[in-house]
Amino acid sequence: MQFDSESTPGFAIGRIAYLMRIRMEAVLKQAEWPFTPDEPQTLITLADMCEPLSMNDLASRMVRTPTTVKRQLDRLVDHKFIKRSVSPKNVRILMVGLTSRGEKKLRTVLPLLDELRKSALQGITKTQVAEIQKVLQKMQSNLANHALKDHALKD
User: Fold this and answer.
1) Beta-strand (E) ranges in 34-150?
2) Pair 43, 75 in one domain
3) Does 89 lie in the same domain as 20?
4) What digits encode the pLDDT tens for the residues 93-106?
5) Cβ neighbour number for residue 137 with a 10 Å cutoff
6) What is the torsional sign of CA 117, 120, 123, 128?
7) Do residue 111 and residue 134 come from a single domain?
8) Less crowded by CB within 10 Å, the N or C end of the chain?
9) Which residues form the HTH marR-type domain (predicted)?
10) Is the domain of 20 the same as that of 77?
11) 11-20, pLDDT tens digit by residue?
12) What value does the CA radius of gyration of the chain take, rounded to a whole number of Å?
């Protein structure tokens, strides 16, 4: 069987994700960040929304399982970067929001992550970045649709 991993987008995406994670770990360590590269994504997602989110909504936006997000949230709560509260609309729903301490820590690490992003995109035009983003969003949508169909088949 012939297979060319060099021309397969999935392999390229995997390699890029791995290299980004390694660089993020180094940048975050330099900033004395006490977590893995996954936690900034959690804080950034909450900051982007400008309001608390339910844990399930947060997991969905981050394309993670609720269990994975819960573990991240536990660490962030322990460091007082986020807080949990009961939804005013439904007491069974737990909401998650940034604390002022979390916002402050995020503000210190965002410029470092932005430099990493700029380094990764060096030599790539804004038009190319927009096209890459469009392709990646389409791939994510395609895969999410398949995941939903696969999940429905299990039920």
Assistant:
1) 53-54, 82-86, 94-98
2) yes
3) yes
4) 989 999 999 999 88
5) 10
6) negative
7) no
8) N
9) 1-141
10) yes
11) 889 999 999 9
12) 18
